[in-house]
């Protein structure tokens, strides 16, 4: 079932959804089960599965030469989505990224998803590889998420890359895209970032899910600015509770988000990560209660493969 249809059928009720990581290469589906099953009691409307592009490592060869080797440490996104869908009867949303894919490979991945009965995707540009200072498009691939959305949307009209193909069957996907209440780190300003989001919506995206945030005012202001810009699709808040003291510096650096002073000072007073988790859990509960009161379509949790804290939060709000 398409995600946008779930929002429409909910008729104002806030849904529960979450995101998981594929396990590291060499691990099994049991790791995924451990992340999912504690959250089944909240009847998740859908589960997102992230995609991790290749990383580059240098391996020493004969005579001291170094060889640059591409390694994908968390493969299996498509297979995991299919396994979840058919084991738990829960709709899944695989992430599709620009980095590491040609347009032809993207089309083939979408065909595979369609064969598996998966009709939802989250279209993202993706991050640069760790050895790059900025995003470098894959030769023959997309430079940004807008091009990716356009390609997926074209498939919904039966338009394939092969211009000689006649009577291609449409492959219709519900497309989600990313949104940034505190603006994308590479955007010159929030207004221009919203303009780019609008282009993705106009190209065929049906909803947006936000980067994590800790101050609901950022989300509410962002949604209002989007509405003023003519964006009418559901905008789903992304929630990631703080659980470690190191998050005080990690979150702003990696996700480019602000941690409110009152939250930051409360975490600073904690002497253990267990205390930090208690503070982060309570903060997220209050965040979620306010968001539900405002009528958000869904609360989308970034679990990072660890569901215990999200379970504690969900028990207080669902």
How would you describe this protein?
By secondary structure, this protein is an alpha/beta fold. It has one domain (3-317): TIM Barrel (Alpha-Beta Barrel). It has helices at 3-10, 29-36, 77-88, 103-115, 145-155, 190-203, 216-228, 247-255, 261-268, 273-293, 308-317, and strands at 15-20, 46-49, 55-60, 66-71, 91-97, 120-124, 174-179, 207-212, 235-239, 298-302. The protein starts with a helix and ends with a helix.
Q: In brief, what are we looking at here?
A:
The chain is of the alpha/beta class and 318 residues long. It has helices at 3-10, 29-36, 77-88, 103-115, 145-155, 190-203, 216-228, 247-255, 261-268, 273-293, 308-317; strands at residues 15-20, 46-49, 55-60, 66-71, 91-97, 120-124, 174-179, 207-212, 235-239, 298-302. The longest helix has 21 residues, at 273-293.
- Largest sheet report: 8 strands, parallel, barrel
- Write the element-wise H/E pattern from the N-terminal end onward: HEHEEEHEHEHEHEHEHHHEH
Give start-end ranges of low-pLDDT stretches: none
The 3D shape can be described as: globular
Number of strands: 10
Spatial strand sequence of the major β-sheet? 1-2-5-6-7-8-9-10
Radius of gyration: 20 Å
**CATH topology label:** TIM Barrel
Strand content: 15-25%
Number of H- or I-type helical stretches = 11
Helicity level = 25-40%
- What structural class do you assign from the helix and strand content? alpha/beta
**What is the number of independent domains?**
1
CATH architecture: Alpha-Beta Barrel
Mean pLDDT: 92
What is the terminal separation in angstroms? 22 Å
- CATH class wording: Alpha Beta
